[in-house]
Amino acid sequence: MDNFYELASKRQSCRNYSDRPVEKEKLMQCIKSAAIAPSACNGQPWHYTLITESETVAKLVRHLQSAGANRFTSKTPAFAVITEKPTNAMASMGERLKDQDFSSMDIGISVAHFVLQAEALGLSTCIIGWFNENGIKELLNIKKSDRIRLVIAVGYKDDSDKLRPKKRKSLEDILTVIE
Ligand SMILES: Cc1cc2nc3c(=O)[nH]c(=O)nc-3n(C[C@H](O)[C@H](O)[C@H](O)COP(=O)(O)O)c2cc1C
To answer: Could you report how far apart the first and last alpha carbons of the chain are, in Å?
Structure first.
């Protein structure tokens, strides 16, 4: 696909997966694309944990579902869990001096690379921010002091899953042009 807008428009949060397992090579390509994302002072404050083994997937899913949210994950074959790692000294100094949270921004950009790469490979994804952080840390032996920022559900969509019209603010609402 050579048209970026077309790719970005095709990506949508998938909450209806087929049973088809995800190829390891495709997941690794998503990680490679996530890894080349830009970040403040090139700090790269992300760590990805890929989970495809079915028993661990089933245990992870328990920590993604609560209050009726994320029920669809029961049929998701693979996940990436993204942990924030300390950024470098320059980026943390910049964060402090400018009162910004560059690490979360960096992780968001990296996750965008991941999900768009997945889309380009014919996979579907859903970014998940609603989860039991401590439960996942315990399951995956992630240090208590680390923060899990996001989880990505990955799989092949079910045939019944159709492209939805995008509900977005108008460009007038989000854009100011100073000419
Ligand atoms: C940071 C973040 C957290 C999200 N958390 C969840 C979630 O926990 N469960 C879910 O079903 N969707 C989640 N989403 C997906 C959004 O609901 C979705 O991106 C948004 O409604 C736009 O729809 P689209 O992705 O289909 O274009 C999350 C998205 C982002 C970026």
So the answer is: 33
